[in-house]
Amino acid sequence: MHPFSYTRVSDTRAALDAGRRGGRYIAGGTTLVDLMRETVERPRALVDISALPLREVTVTRRGGLRIGALVRMAEAAAHPRVRALYPVISQALELSASAQLRNMATIGGNIMQRTRCSYFRDVTAACNKREPGTGCAALHGVNRTHAILGTSDDCVATHPSDVAVAFAALEATVHLLGPAGERTVPFADFLLEPGSTPSREQALRPGELITAVEIPALPRPLKSGYLKVRDRQSYEFALTSAAVALHIRGGVIREAKVAAGGVGTVPWKLPAVEGRLIGQRPSDALWTTAAERAADGARPLPHNRFKVELLRRTVERQLRVIGGGK
Ligand SMILES: Cc1cc2nc3c(=O)[nH]c(=O)nc-3n(C[C@H](O)[C@H](O)[C@H](O)COP(=O)(O)OP(=O)(O)OC[C@H]3O[C@@H](n4cnc5c(N)ncnc54)[C@H](O)[C@@H]3O)c2cc1C
């Protein structure tokens, strides 16, 4: 580990001051500290924000949900409002990491977590995300768990978060506070596809702090849920996953929100699948037809061709679970 300074702040102004001076925010520390130990990350100044008053879950005036950036994953998952309004969020969180990690890790830190690509985490390997211009060892290496959507010639790493897939599906908004004041960014624009600059991963400006994630109100009744497919049933990242929310009224699907995880360089929204669902009556045939569009545009790598079919099946199964049928 490289030497670093550590400051604990208790108000947002002090946090922003430290952030403006180049300090790196640390919340639960469950992933940043690992990366520092591996010398993948070498911040010179840590600013511990865990005491900031960003730990509330509130229902917005319009009936959406605002989850403070420092709400622990376990707290968010168990929160009665989250469970009642958006089970897809609770399920995505409960299927993440381990109980110990979920007790420490925060919502803000979760969406900011970096890829689990083993070449990114190996400082001796070529990685454009870690060291721009060095190449991408995963392109011709072991790439079974890598992305098939949103990739570029410079990076094929997946975004590992589960709850980010639910946020993408539900079209959440990220609330930010920075030296220039407050702003909001649609979740779809917050995490960035790698393109030719894979080291730039989020739309955060220098010194900006995530204060909350807001999920918009959606028409009710709304059924939602998260399916995660992985090599083992616990304590493992997704090979594929699907977050699905459906509003069905009068026997017709009026609203459909669908996104996939484990397959994209960012959580992957599936508008073509949603388009096939809206206005239709639920049926087994519909789930199959809609899921056929799940892997549109996929560019599989030599070791992960299986993800194309696995993604299609994951989406089809979760549509059936939420929408009904065998
Ligand atoms: C063994 C293991 C298994 C895991 N499995 C899963 C899994 O299956 N699914 C899953 O989704 N996740 C998984 N994770 C990741 C875990 O969820 C993250 O480590 C955790 O959510 C990070 O939150 P944190 O508060 O500890 O972040 P920290 O480690 O404190 O910070 C992470 C990053 O976020 C930044 N940051 C934190 N808060 C803010 C803020 N408010 N504003 C701006 N920047 C901020 C930090 O600067 C840092 O860059 C796993 C982690 C481990 C170690």
Automatic annotation (TrEMBL):
<dbReference type="GO" id="GO:0016491">
    <property type="term" value="F:oxidoreductase activity"/>
</dbReference>
<feature type="domain" description="FAD-binding PCMH-type">
    <location>
        <begin position="1"/>
        <end position="220"/>
    </location>
</feature>
<dbReference type="Pfam" id="PF03450">
    <property type="entry name" value="CO_deh_flav_C"/>
</dbReference>
<dbReference type="Pfam" id="PF00941">
    <property type="entry name" value="FAD_binding_5"/>
</dbReference>
<protein>
    <submittedName>
        <fullName>FAD-binding molybdopterin dehydrogenase</fullName>
    </submittedName>
</protein>
<dbReference type="InterPro" id="IPR016166">
    <property type="entry name" value="FAD-bd_PCMH"/>
</dbReference>
<dbReference type="InterPro" id="IPR016167">
    <property type="entry name" value="FAD-bd_PCMH_sub1"/>
</dbReference>
<dbReference type="InterPro" id="IPR051312">
    <property type="entry name" value="Diverse_Substr_Oxidored"/>
</dbReference>
<dbReference type="InterPro" id="IPR036683">
    <property type="entry name" value="CO_DH_flav_C_dom_sf"/>
</dbReference>
<dbReference type="GO" id="GO:0071949">
    <property type="term" value="F:FAD binding"/>
</dbReference>
<dbReference type="InterPro" id="IPR005107">
    <property type="entry name" value="CO_DH_flav_C"/>
</dbReference>
<dbReference type="InterPro" id="IPR016169">
    <property type="entry name" value="FAD-bd_PCMH_sub2"/>
</dbReference>
<dbReference type="InterPro" id="IPR002346">
    <property type="entry name" value="Mopterin_DH_FAD-bd"/>
</dbReference>
<dbReference type="InterPro" id="IPR036318">
    <property type="entry name" value="FAD-bd_PCMH-like_sf"/>
</dbReference>
<keyword id="KW-0560">Oxidoreductase</keyword>
